[in-house]
Amino acid sequence: xxxxxxxxxxxxxxxxxxxGGITSPITVLxxxxxxMFMKLLDDNQLKAEAGANALGIQLKKKVFGxxxxxxxxxxxxxTEYRNLRWNVFHNFEPGAMFTNVQNYVFPFIxxxxxxxxxxxxxxxxxxxxxxxxxxxLAKVVDGIDAMDMNNKDxxxxxxxxxxxxxxxxGENGQFRTPRHIIRMMVELxxxxxxxxxxxxxMGSAGFLLESSxxxxxxxxxxxxxxxxxxxxxxxxxxxFDTDQSMLRIGAMNMMLHGVEDPNIKYQDSxxxxxxxRNCYSLIMANPPFTGSVFQEEISKDLxxxxxxxxxxxxxxxxxxxxxxxxxxxxxxxxxxVLFGSSAAHKAxxxxxxxxxxxxxxxxxxxxxxxxxxxxSTAILIFTKTNAGGTDKVWFYDMTADGYSLDDKRSPIADNxxxxxxxRYENFTGEEARERTDKSFFVQKEEIISxxxxxxxxxxxxxxxxxxxxxxxxxxxxxxxxxxKQISEAMDELExxx
Length: 497
Fold this sequence. Notes:
Blueprint: H1 4-19, H2 25-55, E1 68-72, E2 77-80, H3 86-89, H4 94-110, H5 119-124, H6 134-145, H7 152-168, H8 179-189, E3 197-199, H9 206-218, H10 226-234, E4 237-241, H11 244-256, E5 263-266, E6 280-285, H12 300-305, H13 311-322, E7 323-334, H14 336-339, H15 343-355, E8 357-364, E9 377-383, E10 392-397, E11 401-403, E12 411-415, H16 417-424, E13 439-443, H17 444-449, H18 472-496
Parallel strand pairs: 3-4, 3-6, 4-5, 6-7, 8-10
Antiparallel strand pairs: 1-2, 7-9, 8-9, 10-13, 11-12
Helix pairs in contact: 1-2, 1-6, 2-11, 4-6, 8-9, 8-16, 13-15
């Protein structure tokens, strides 16, 4: 989590844009993202150029070429490639920098992609440069320069904090999932090069980004093969959303992480317009909670499974439809999904237990989403079979995630996440655990007998430790002794007066 000096730097950048006249939080985030993207593009090429020079070879593929760059043909606009690079224009005086970024750099990044129809080009074409004055732009550029953007963890913290500011303002809060929770879910699901990965409520593409990082780390040799690299850059990752701003941000994030053309598109995942079924091998998501949609817009096959307008239930139904047989899902749900008594709640739980293979439920403390939301949540993991397969379900009672569960969310020593991953990877060792432990198995038959209730408190046993207290006689004797000591002390004090 972001702390101290770095938090102050981000706040200063945000306040500079805000006081400059841009008061929409999502717009502020967009404008900051565009500048961060400009810097990271240049930083990436500088590193690539340094590597090429060290090897004595020419860098073949680069964003910033040599000589003159034609920005547009009609009207004809051109400039030197070097003027498009952050390491050059950040030294310009404010007026010249403003003109350069507005007229050359910003139009240039909108057309990146060699004219191909990519996710990036689709969602960048309508972007607008909104910095009001040269002074505001210069101050923000200086602020970004002061951050270590080559550190992925730090930039992840920064971006999470920026998304959190949107949530705090009451806009698009559903897009923020703590990065360490996303990373844990990715570690549990272990995506491979064989997977087609989807987040149908992608927001800023956090699950897709962490999945791409995991694949890059664990399959670096395999990615050297052209066919694997091409799949990674184009067809491996998919994400849907109904917010154009978040689609742009997601597309930029993916491109910066080497995924040049993910299947990112504007789409209401729950609507009848979404006809993608049996397509994906892995879904990871944190869909919107406590929302509702117009029933006439909901896909009919979802209503057939779960007749409701509640988004948290409809998305679970959607996952069972969009996964291919054998596909896995890890998603975050509010606790109410696990024990709700409505017909729709029971129907979706019955579907997962009886018709699919429900594997695990990880109960998370309510403070995980603070300070922006206090809702209690759980991670639900299942495999699509359409033929059942649930024999027992693994429950884990997470009580700590490495951060305090108050609004400050400060780092602490207590952290169940490594233990969760270790136990999930060794189910054999879980067989003998008692219901008083942090994790345990519950048989399918017991779940059915409890009306498909999936809340951990239904099955967890609390161990009560007997406490022995002194007898009344002992307590009275102690009080008499204390009274005597006080009386003697008072006598001694009186003698001194």
